[in-house]
Design brief:
By secondary structure, the protein is an alpha+beta fold. The chain contains six helices and five strands; from the N terminus they run αααααβββββα. A hairpin with a 2-residue loop joins strand 1 and strand 2.
Amino acid sequence: MLKGERCSSPKCAMIKRPYAPGQHGQSFKGKMSEYGKQLREKQKARRIYGIGERQFANCAEKADKIGGNTAENLLAFLESRLDNVLYRLGFAPSRSSARQAVAHGLFMVNDHKVSIPSFTVKPGDKIKPIKKEMFKESNPLNLPSWITFNQKELTGTVNHTPTREEIDTTLNESLIIEFYSR
């Protein structure tokens, strides 16, 4: 803390105030623009899934080309990534650690070693670790209905492509699609 009486007065620099600094900090109430809302939602999705800008834009473009509901297609692409599926199966405590585990080549999909975190799993794919003793404690807490997990064999199976109702992220995907459609 600061020396002397300054820190016991209301002008103490160490106190965090709930408004912006400066003469007009208390009176300014900034309203976010529509673009700002869309950008914030896109950045939130990128941070949740741990994806770079170019890769996320490619996902959005691919979701638009497929046809149907573009927003649901985008979320289905993001959820079907191998690193996300491993996180959902409980093999990793976070998506970033699941990404690292895949990059180190610790998992197989349909008995083929995969080291690409963005690998898209398809319905019917079986995912298992190469060294089972490393993942004996894996226990999925909130397993979505589109994935099944066999605790005995330590394998996960993708049943079908996830729908919006089965995805528990709090994203407003329509704002993301509006951001890319301008």
